[in-house]
Amino acid sequence: MAGGFAPAASTTTFEARITPLVIISCILASTGGLMFGFDVGISGGVTSMPSFLEKFFPVVYRKTQQTGLESNYCKYDNQGLQLFTSSLYIAALIATFFASVTTRRLGRRLTMLIAGVFFLLGTVLNAAAVNLAMLIIGRLLLGCGVGFANQAVPVFLSEIAPTRIRGALNILFQLNVTIGILFANIINYGTAKITGGWGWRLSFGLGGIPASMLTIGSLIVTDTPNSLIERGHLDEGKSVLRRIRGIENVEPEYMELVEASRVAKAVKAPVKDILLRKYRPPLVIAILLQIFQQFTGINAIMFYAPVLFRSLGFGGDASLYSAVITGAVNVLSTLVSIYSVDKIGRRLLLLEACVQMFLSQVVIAIVLGFKLKDNTSDLSKGFAILVVVMVCTFVSSFAWSWGPLGWLIPSETFPLETRSIGQSVTVSVNMLFTFVIAQAFLSMLCHLKYGIFLFFSAWVFIMGLFAFFMLPETKNVPIEEMTDKVWRQHWYWKRFFD
């Protein structure tokens, strides 16, 4: 049918109260997103600090001190500098497959604990770095932390949340990512002003705060009933289910979890079985969502916001200040998603955002194409403000759509038997393409110049077509009923089932 999705049949709604235990558990677990966002923001700001560049990337430092000799778009084009940012994501890509094993065998809670410890170790090494090797090893440890956290936290949130507010609670992860980016931008704005050239060390060191929050939080929260039952702790799983649902009669939901666990135990090789035809719809959707999420261009902006604004002619303080503004917009817009995702659904948010992102990127490309010359020092004030407004327009639409929903939809659509490996595939594909963008963006900016925004806007157009025709709606569908209520009802994906 037009639009790509036939409405689901009436769905089961299990009785559940919104209990303090669920809210507290979700808040504590979602600090894994705070940790991830903090690193994204910190690395972008630190790479624009002269003292950091002078110590670790002197070639880049010298280029940034020259005026009128090189294109605005090319001053930060350096493979070593890009490797500093992108090395984290290669480590996260590899770590997530180990995290899949710990998530399945040891539980979601212990996997989050491991993530916090890795991130703490990486933070210490980065803050104390005296050479590039120490810096990169620290980034690799941070990447392991990110890989484990991004594997466990979205699954934890989707499993512990009542169906009717599952979307909102899952988006707490992405909200914390945006808060982490905002705090990092504010911290960088302050530490850049510290005399003596050690401000970047403080920026890195403060990453210990979100890492400690996740570490302590993972010691406090209980594991999900799904995980406990999957690992054979039936009585404990039922007890936890009663506590998080706030009712005594949890038998219908409990029996469904037990049945899902029985099916999951029959899967002896989840890595192999996830390639089976019946698991293909959620697998393809999860992979494409991660690729599309990165090719919106969002991480190019978030990683390098201070560098980007400085490349576009903004002064040092102005570039960091502009990054703080975009960070604040990111946080506020994610709140829009928390409010609306379980009311108006996933698809409508994604489709609206594609229109907004496409238009804002085209406007940015036109302004830069006509008004920013290669060797001039800055844009006029009016056009500089317009660029910031358009960047904020782009960021806001991403923050209430492809950002949080890129994590939410995969975490709620895989059946229990492939949920852990499915989340690993989701995280690894995300990290692979995050690495690609992080490693290539500054070179792309140098060669494509303003055309880089046209490149990303073309991808946004493709994403809109994909969301319209191929993406089913999953709001208000119990997590263990996705196959019958979503995939078997979709005009295209139903052909993958007998």
UniProtKB/TrEMBL annotation:
The chain crosses the membrane at residues 21-42, 80-98, 110-130, 136-157, 169-190, 202-221, 283-307, 319-341, 348-370, 382-409, 421-442, 448-471. The keyword Transport applies. It is found in: Membrane. This is Major facilitator superfamily (MFS) profile domain-containing protein. Belongs to the major facilitator superfamily. Sugar transporter (TC 2.A.1.1) family. The gene is LOC115994190. Pfam families: Sugar_tr. SUPFAM superfamilies: MFS general substrate transporter. Keywords: Membrane, Sugar transport, Symport, Transmembrane, Transmembrane helix, Transport. GO terms for cellular component: membrane. GO terms for molecular function: monosaccharide transmembrane transporter activity; symporter activity. It comes from Quercus lobata (Valley oak). The keyword Signal does not apply. Residues 25-475 form the Major facilitator superfamily (MFS) profile domain. It is a multi-pass membrane protein.
